[in-house]
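The record is kept unedited without comment:

——
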Amino acid sequence: MNNIHITTKKTFNNMKQTFPILIAILLLISLVNSLLTEEIVSKIFTGTMLDPLVGAIIGSISAGNPLTSYIIGGEFINYGISIITITAFILTWVTVGLVQFPAESLMLGKRFAFWRNVLSFLSAIIIAILINFTMGII
């Protein structure tokens, strides 16, 4: 009986910690839906071969957590953005941290932070191409 009480208490505490994150994600979805209109997205992503690079640059600048990137990626799919562009965006959103670069370079060194970000950026584009190649989209 005591183990059930402990497990229930841990579950409740986890839910208390997760609830603000869920609320923030719902608010972010609303913000993205209101700010990213189809006209704005079509101006940013023109349907050219440069779109994956543009998506990777935007993802690098606006770093965030994976859950949020999936939501934004889903909106991009609704707007007709290519999978290769969305993949590059999501990968750089999660792995490249230009916003966090000052803190990362302070803790891990400027050289390491620079090369980690450069390699993550290049890898994201290569992985996006490979994923789409294996899916037969290209």
About this structure: Residues 2-35 form the longest helix (34 residues). The mean pLDDT is 84. Residues 4 and 64 are 36 Å apart (CA to CA). The radius of gyration is 18 Å.
